[in-house]
Design brief:
By secondary structure, the chain is of the alpha+beta class. Helix content is about 40%, strand content about 20%. It has four helices and three strands, in the order αβαααββ. Strands 1-2-3 form a three-stranded mixed sheet, with helices on both faces. A hairpin with a 3-residue loop joins β2 and β3. The longest helix is centred in the last third of the chain and has 16 residues. The termini are far apart.
């Protein structure tokens, strides 16, 4: 559930609001965890993992972040979105998030 805290903090640090982000890649370590974060943050499900998340694409040991960033940047380019966020949970309820901007 850590992304529910990490995402708003990262987005605020970038000077943005949650609705200004066009694409979210939230790691689905567990489906319930990802669903909780989407609901807690009030995100449009159509903007979260639009090409499938870890359940569909895989959760590669040691390179989850790289897979998420590659997926996010490709989707931002395809859709023309300016801002995107990657986030993942970490054991014991922690989370990490990063905001990306496409020129």
């Amino acid at each position: 559930i850590g992304p529910a805290v990490a995402i708003p903090a990262a987005v605020a640090n970038a000077g943005l609001g949650l609705q200004q982000v066009g694409v979210y890649e939230i790691n689905e370590a567990f489906a319930s965890q990802a669903l909780y974060c989407v609901r807690k943050l009030g995100l449009d499900p159509a903007r979260v993992n639009p090409n499938g998340g870890a359940i569909a694409l895989g959760h590669p040991l040691g390179c989850t972040g790289a897979r998420q960033v590659a997926t996010l940047l490709n989707e931002m380019e395809r859709s023309g979105e300016r801002f995107g966020v990657v986030s993942m949970c970490i054991g014991t309820g922690m989370g990490a998030a990063a905001v990306f901007e496409r020129p």
